[in-house]
Amino acid sequence: MLPFALVASYYIGCGSMSIMHYNKEHKQWLSENSRNELVVQDFNSEVDGEQKHITLVGEIHVYTKPESEYANQIVKDYDVVLCEGASGENTSLRNKLFLSSIKPFVRMARYCYTHGTGRLITNDSLDDAAENAGKPIFFIEEGTDGGIGTLDFESKAFVWSEYFMRTLFCPSEYIDGVSTAMRNDEDMSLDIVDDLYEMARSGRKDPLNVAERDVNMAREAYDHIMARDDDRIMIVVGVAHFRGIREELSDLIDLVPINEPYIPDSNSY
Fold first, then answer.
1. Comparing C-alpha atoms, which of 41, 110, 33, 38 is closest to residue 71?
2. For the chain, percent helix, then strand, then coil, each to nearest 5?
3. CA-only gyration radius of the chain, Å
4. What pairs with residue 80 in β-bridges?
């Protein structure tokens, strides 16, 4: 029995050291190769006779270091930032309970995945950067508890089970994150914009209600734009909402594209 235990301990120890060594090597690789994958598009718009500059940003919610650096630099040029989600101040008790039940699973799965990709919650996002710069921040899903209010019981059950399963297989989340970080497709986030838009409107089940939330967020963004005198406005949403928000908002106000969607060049900031 003792020899077996010693052999098992040896292999477990070697395996743990190999994983730690690989993680150290990967962190070094990330420090040299992580990149900005935010999707950005700029527009001019005339609202009640006033010219406004509107920038739409699609994010992956947890930022790489280059994205965080870009966020802190670019946000200084804007008067207000409108963000996906809700402040949580008026969230219903039912949705608070749902969010509380799923939060541990989301955090664990996100922790493993983001460490593989180099996306860390300690990196400032655009709303963090706006707060640092003293810019006004408004959330554009206040009316639906950050979108949770649009989900039916089946959709909530799907989301809960999805994150529960991801937590059970956390090592695979890290591996998936590593493979995502090390891909060579620098324009992947631009491709995802169209893929996710088509998926949400394909007629298949949309458990996160992306299409409906696009409509709601565009309407709340429009209300803020009309109610305020800001000349330069930034709208920040998950990359899955980028094209939908653009389409829905263009039905409400005249959006004149200044450029095509692009990923900021790290040499430009």
1. 38
2. 60, 15, 30
3. 21
4. 233
Amino acid at the residue 98: F
Residue 133 · residue 71 · CB < 8 Å: no
pLDDT along the chain (269 residues), means of 10: 42 41 64 83 92 95 92 96 89 88 87 83 94 96 90 89 86 80 69 74 77 94 94 95 95 95 77
Residue 55 to residue 125: CA distance in whole angstroms: 16
The neighbour count for residue 75, using CB atoms within 10 Å, is 23
Give the start-to-end residue ranges of the domains of the chain: 1-33, 35-268
What tokens does 170 get?
């956390």
User: What pTM was estimated for this model as a whole?
Assistant: 0.85
Task: Measure the N-to-C terminal CA separation of the chain; round to a whole number of Å.
Answer: 62
Rounded Cα gap, residues 163 and 178, in angstroms: 19
68: tokens are 């965080």
60 touches 119 (CB < 8 A): yes
